[in-house]
Amino acid sequence: GKGLAVLTSGGDSQGMNAAVRSVVRMGIYLGCKVYFIREGYQGMVDGGDNIEEANWSSVSSIIHRGGTVIGSARCTDFMKREGRVKAAYNLVTRGITNLVVIGGDGSLTGANLFREEWAGLLDELLENNKITKDQREKYKFLHIAGMVGSIDNDFCGTDMTIGTDSALHRIIGAIDAIVSTAYSHQRTFIMEVMGRQCGYLALVAALAGEADQVFIPEDPVPNNWVEKLCKRLQQERKSGQRLNIIIVAEGAIDREGKPITAELVRKVVVDNLQQDTRITVLGHVQRGGSPSAFDRILGCRMGAEAVMALMEASPDTEPCVVSLDGNQAVRLPLMECVRRTKAVAQAMADKNWDLAVQLRGRS
Ligand code: ATP
């Protein structure tokens, strides 16, 4: 059977295990020899026990677990050609020519580069007598399929990244908990949620959690934001509301690009309204805990689609990223999506927020 390996790279997210499980089982079902690569690209560079053959039962009882059971890492070795030569050696000597990468735009960029260099990497290994001519010929094509695991929903081309829905559940759970205590003491709570570049989590959590105000990176506040915020909070209290909830995304800013932090907002509320005001920073809780049903199903569907894409690939098939479009799992050109995602980051850096939102498209 064909050799197929799966790795998770970059920041972890809930639902990655469902995706890994699906890749392994779909691969085995279609007659592949399937391998885990542990600790992201580091495991691919280091080889040894990091690359282990998977069987049907080795992915039992992982679908309900958060994070990634095969480990994830940031790997500087893979950024260098020398590291990628070692990684190629570790794949070729195991007969692996199909690779599923679950990660963010950085991880997918690395995967694409690896594929582009593949023939050259094998030539180098052959020259140094690390592999045989037969191996060079037999494994001359590397096929890549990507999936995006990220709680931020910050990738262009997919309506939802794997992990976003679970992170939202965590945030909503926290808001509900805060609301009950805030109600008792007539407090105002400011909650900081993740999202340096992308305000999706903050915005959707604010809607679902009935927040009074939300601050996100894509919609910098105007100069009179203090006045507007105070007026709104006061109005809500006057109309009988016993509490206020304000959501701040990590990357929230004003029109000059200065950060709007939870602490700044707290000071504004205390100084102007003398409300009893507390801050809750959710932090890593958001990426932890068990994945939602949606993320489990998303991981399952995407994993299966990724394996099918690899099995159908011909030598000139471009690498794809499996995405959710409406309610369909689709294959999109990997590098085009990565380029768009990077263009969004650039537009944000250039303070061209309208362009950023436009480039990001749906969701
Ligand atoms: P997240 O969105 O969670 O940060 P990411 O995949 O974007 O995920 P990165 O830290 O950018 O996270 O990348 C993860 C790993 O992918 C890096 O540590 C590195 O090993 C590899 N990688 C990233 N960019 C490249 C590149 N240009 N060339 C080779 N490898 C890369």
What is the overall pLDDT average?
Answer: 96
- Give the low-pLDDT segments: none
**Residue share in β-strands:** 15-25%
Quick one: overall form? elongated
Order of helices and strands: EHEHEHEHHEEHEHEHEHEHEEHH
Total of DSSP H or I helical runs spanning 4+ residues: 12
Distance between the termini: 39 Å
Briefly note the structural class of the backbone: alpha/beta
Task: Provide the gyration radius in Å.
Answer: 23 Å
DSSP strand count: 12
Give the biggest beta sheet: 8 strands, mixed
**Helical content (DSSP H or I, runs of 4+):** 40-55%
Question: What small molecules does the structure contain?
Answer: adenosine-5'-triphosphate
